[in-house]
Amino acid sequence: MSTAYVVVTLLAAAMAGFSAASVFLRAKWVVEPLADYGVPRSWWPLLGAAKAAGAAGLLVGLWVPVVGVLAGVGLVLYFAGAVVTVVRARSYAHIPFPLVYAAPVVGALVLGS
Question: Where does the pLDDT of residue 27 fall: very low under 50, low under 70, confident under 90, or very high at 90 and above?
Fold first, then answer.
């Protein structure tokens, strides 16, 4: 296990965890765009839980690699879905935001293989 892999995985987990906490705490800068994109309010706790589970899975993956890979793939799919949601809402200026969160996850998957 390389130092780069550990650092990038910790960064990815921290970012996903922060994103989850932002949804759980209903941070205005997160939930207003979700409402604008047409994401039902009833989905918000599930979306936060998915990101939190992904963050936890990345951390567990440092000791159990298959869990980390599954969590990473799940997070990449989650953020790809976020990009699709943003595009469908025609909020093109917001496309970079989910990509910024996905980038370290992709990096962790690449470095871990």
Answer: very high
